[in-house]
Amino acid sequence: DEAIAKVEESQRVRATPEAEQQLRDLKAARDRKKAEEAQKQARAKALRDEGAALQAKGDLAGALAKFKEAQQLLPDPKLADHIAKVEAALKERQTLIDQAEALRRNPQSIACGKGLGDASALADKLEKVDAAKATALRKDIATIATATASGLVANQLDFAKGIPCLEVAQKLDP
Questions:
Q1: 13-32: burial string, b at 16+ Cβ within 10 Å, e else
Q2: Which of 63, 74, 84, 107 could cross-link with 55 by S-S, CB 3.0 to 4.6 Å?
Q3: What angle, rounded to 10 degrees, do the helices at 77-105 and 114-129 form?
Q4: Is the dihedral of CA 101, 102, 104, 110 positive or negative?
């Protein structure tokens, strides 16, 4: 814009065909730059919107990819903060899934008592990030709790532990 103003001033003093062409070229370049910037802003907004829609559906990995693409196109400190939060949520989700899978691979670690409570609490946390995996984990926990309780009651080892364990199993998988 400053260059255009200078060329326009020189045109007023002494108009030449070269100066007129230079002025047209400068204005065209300015207009192209503005159009490119508007396109970049529109594309970044579209990517942020796509990311938000994916995040709302629970697709954090897809959302993160869109947010990062938007950030690369048009850096924004608020978006950078949001990206960090989504990355943290993805990491937490993976940690919960890993813990649930470890429990499912090692069911002996779930017994009536603290282990059952811990497993149930893990299923509750997992529910917030992956409902299907939480449901599967609850079913596994209930099956293990029922088997453990049945063994305790059937062998008359410990009715006091067996009955509450059955109650928890019933709550987890009615």
A1: eeeeeeeeebbeebeeeeee
A2: 63
A3: 140
A4: negative
Q: Which helix (H) or strand (E) holds 99?
A: helix 77-105
Residue corresponding to tokens 């989700």: 93
- The total of other beta-carbon atoms located within 10 Å of residue 161's CB is 16
DSSP 157: S
Q: Taken in order 141, 146, 149, 155, is the CA torsion positive or negative?
A: negative
> What are the tokens at 130?
């992956």
Q: How far is CA 80 from the centre of its chain?
A: 13
Is residue 122 within 8 A of residue 103, CB to CB? The reply is: yes
Against a cut of 0.90, is the pTM above it? no
Average pLDDT along the chain, 174 residues, taken 10 residues at a time: 69 69 81 92 96 91 96 95 94 83 66 62 78 78 67 56 58 60
**Opening angle at CA 61, ends 59 and 67, nearest 5:** 100
